[in-house]
Design a protein that fits this description.
By secondary structure, the chain is mainly α. 68% of the residues lie in helices and 0% in strands.
Length: 186
């Protein structure tokens, strides 16, 4: 429970909304349950947002910020493309936890919502651009680098999807080693 002297920020609400989205999609973003979860009154919400739509927009912007180009900057700065790909695959695949909720997968259920479609497009584009750039730097021709990036990204999303329902998945480190062996050209 948040005590009276603690004020939640708009970002606190956006992060709570993202957690709700991960667990139940856009429909799970509702002010009263979020206020209960955060241990505050609805008044805290209205100090930051006029309505639920503003909260959803803020949550999607936070997701894009924390999972798109800005979040990939440290990887993009790695000069050796083989090391970049190895580290990227390792971090991403090790982050996939069995039965863990996923904002990305939950958003797919609302992909016809223009706000959601745009957020997913931004995150996918940033990830695919970094992967394609990495494959080009590893010597693949541009068309092949783009195709390889799509296949690698699809495999990562597939692992994320499988983790939603597979409590017996191999340890993430094992999966990261396999992903690196498959997607890092020798």
């Amino acid at each position: 429970m948040v005590n009276d002297s603690t004020r939640l920020s708009a970002q606190d609400w956006a992060r709570a909304a993202l957690e709700a989205i991960a667990n139940g999609g856009l429909a799970a973003v509702a002010v009263e349950p979020l206020a209960r979860t955060l241990g505050v009154t609805k008044g805290s919400f209205y100090a930051h947002y006029r309505n639920r739509d503003e909260l959803i927009a803020a949550a999607l912007a936070e997701w894009v910020r924390t999972h798109g180009a800005e979040a990939l900057a440290d990887f993009a700065a790695i000069s050796d493309p083989a090391q970049r790909l190895r580290e990227l695959l390792t971090v991403v695949v090790q982050a996939v936890q069995p039965l863990a909720p996923s904002v990305h997968l939950s958003l797919l259920g609302a992909r016809n919502d223009p706000r959601v479609r745009d957020a997913i497009r931004q995150v996918n584009q940033a990830r695919l651009e970094l992967l394609a750039r990495t494959y080009r730097e590893l010597g693949l021709p541009p068309d092949r680098a783009t195709s390889r990036a799509r296949v690698a990204y699809a495999a990562i999303l597939g692992l994320l999807h499988l983790a939603q329902t597979d409590p017996d998945a191999p340890h993430p480190a094992v999966l990261a080693d396999e992903a690196t062996a498959i997607f890092l050209p020798s």
